[in-house]
Amino acid sequence: MTVGSLQLRLWSQFLDRYPDQLFASQIKGALCHGTKLGYDGPLRSSDRLDVANLPMDSDDVSHLCHKIEARLQEGRLQHVDNPAATRLVCSPVGVVPKPHSDKKRTIYHLSRPRRQGTRLPSVNAGIDLSFVTIRYESLDVIMDFIREHPGALLWKADLKDAFRHIIVATSDARLMGIHFDGHFYQECALVFGGRSSPFLFNLFAEFLHWLTSFTLRSLLTGTSDRHSDVSHYVDDFFGASDRTAHPPTPVRALSLAATALGFKLSRKKTVWDTTKLEILVIELDSVAQTASVTTQRRQRILQLCVRIMERGRASLLELQQVAGHLQFVTRVAPHGRAFLRRLYDAVRAHHKAPFGRRISKATRTELLWWTATLQSWDGISLLQPSPLLVEHIWTDASKRCIGGHWGDMHQPSAAFSRELSRRHRQKDIRFLEALAVLEALRRFAPLWLGHRRVVVHVDNENVEHGLRKGSIHDPQTQVLFREIFALCLRQHNDLVSLRVSLPTGFFSAAVQLDRTPPTSFVVASSLSWRAALLLWNGLAPSTRARSVVMHNNFRTFASSLQIANPFPASPETLIEWDAHHHASGKSYNTVKRDLSMLRSWHVDFGLSTAAFDAERLDRVVRGFKRVVGNPLPVAKLPITLPLLRQLLRALPDTCLCQHNCRMFRAAFCVAFACFLRAGELTWEAQGPNMLTVSSVSFAANRSFTTIALPAGKVDPFRRGTTLTASAVPLGVCPVAALHAICRNRDAREPLFQLKGGQPFDCGCFVAMLRHCLEACGVSPSAYSGHSFRRGAATWAAANGVDADTIRALGRWRSDCFRRYVDRSAEDRAATSRTTLYANADAPLHLDTVAWRDL
């Protein structure tokens, strides 16, 4: 096997320290025997010698001759005297210009032939794409560091001849053969053009990344926070340092690690001690706090887009180039990711016709949007918009008109209203809501100067979600989204969408209606209105709301069976209703819940409930359970102390209103510290169950605070519970957070209240929690408002708190709290080892007392 610059004897001492020893053993094997390409196909047992190289002019031929001679001397290219005996597999070789340079690069076209027929398929076709898929790092780490350290010093470095360092196993080297100038050769190292080359190289680069980080931490005893984490993208390494730090230190750490392993850094591409640097197509400026796409880069992308649109067709390579460049641009224009989908679809479709194919109408539309946007946009995006430069826009739409205003909700600075044309009146409400947003931005954006954050308040959940994510399923609305995002890019507006909560009066009326029985209920109960009022409120409002829906569903089902009066229900009707649930794909728990609610209605009306106790019905329900099953519900994940601290750090950037930010911060801290349910601190209408400012009492030295909880899930009759939260010297201190929202407030005011007197309802509480989780890079789907209570129990158990204390802190009356305590697989494995295998060498005693004898 060819001997490369990466020697096992140099790597072994470092690989022994790597945390993942399985990965380390694989790298050792690759260094000892060479890497396998991951090929599995017919070329394993066949050769291919008759191939035509890519077109080359005289300069290209001269370049290729020089490179072949150099690589023969290096030993990374071998001459093959008997290619048939070696079963050499040749692929076309060619020369292409390096991007943005006058130099040339040798490539091996391992993807030819693309079309299968009488000829054997290409080498790349035999490498499973899922096996070599790789996800590279982004610029998020360095950009976050720049935001926190204005004026940071940037650095980057590039490995020289990156792929050439990785030697290929002898058995796979024959798959990389070439035929040039009457001679046959085989490559012994990774080459450009191999499907698995980036993946295989990245394995070694990942280890270099780890060793560099380890070296940097060793050089920076006690000052590691003054340098960002090292990042890498293939063979590019980059990072940033605080301006008070020693700038060359990270580059020195990378150089030491690379030299120790046998890599070499390119001196021409190594830069440090600068505040402005282009990294992965994006130019970062730590002083101006901007990320931008340079004018030259935008012009190159525009030329590619215009050339494709003028011809109306494109090759696979051209589409890959455009999509690749625009993918980098979306790092500066995040919402642009939504307008790459059709380009990616075109790339996949062009694999079937790589040498040219007409572009679709959808692809052309996206290219037109990018062309118009890049021509009108200067390519600059602010990394850290000023929190003081925030504009608020409130919009709404109906089937006849749209409108909106700019400024405070109650004291707008400007407003507009416009009647819709007839062609828009029949369109989807999502389109109309988005049209209102676009019209508001067109009218108000010219009134603002400079970069600023624009908060758009809408009352449509789909539009709010679409503006936040960048896309929506409705094609007509997506067209408006393109215009909205292009306008925001041109005006340097950082768009943030928020859903408007319904007014307080609405919730008050709704709750009042829940507490007042409908006239039909009063008549059916045969009681006086006052007695019916008490009977109606014998169940919680939420239970009543669900049971009304179920009651109507049962009546509709009975009508389908030609039953005029289904009350009281017969066992046969209930059995057929269960069968209807099964046909509708309902779960076992849904059947049990609906039967319980229907029985409750019989109790309300004074009807016989004997049908619900029928043994035949009980057996049908048990059969439903056997057929469908009854899987446990997916439990929500806990919010433990480390995650809580991340949420609080993300909160200021997620919640733009300082008043609301303080409220959510206090709610998060108190929910965790006091094991609270979401319903115990949120409210929709002011009432006796709501926490007020007077519910909180602080100790004289503020070492703790007590909270008088008026009611709760297990205390519906308002006996009251007193909770205690202790002060802690951390940013998650509940005492400090409560003191910040209680100062200078009337004792009768709600403890948690949003700006403008808006209710602190469960919907806004959970929505803000999910926004903060997304900002932390955590998927919010597995969390809920109950995650704070679950997380407090889990964190307490992880810190050795006994079960009785956890039960008391969480106000549990039984051992049901144990299902809230999440234990990791490592903890359960450790318990299994200590309990079952601790005394493995004990002798066999057949007379040992058994459990049955005790």
The gist of it:
This protein has 854 residues and is an alpha+beta fold. The protein has 29 helices and 23 strands.
Description:
Strand 17 and strand 18 form a beta hairpin. The chain is an alpha+beta fold and 854 residues long. The longest helix has 23 residues, at 197-219. Keywords: DNA recombination, DNA-binding, Endonuclease, Hydrolase, Nuclease, Nucleotidyltransferase, RNA-directed DNA polymerase, Transferase. InterPro entries: DNA/RNA_pol_sf (IPR043502), DNA_brk_join_enz (IPR011010), Hepadnavirus_pol/RT (IPR052055), Integrase-like_cat_sf (IPR013762), Integrase_catalytic (IPR002104), Integrase_recombinase_N (IPR010998), Rev_trsase/Diguanyl_cyclase (IPR043128), RT_dom (IPR000477).
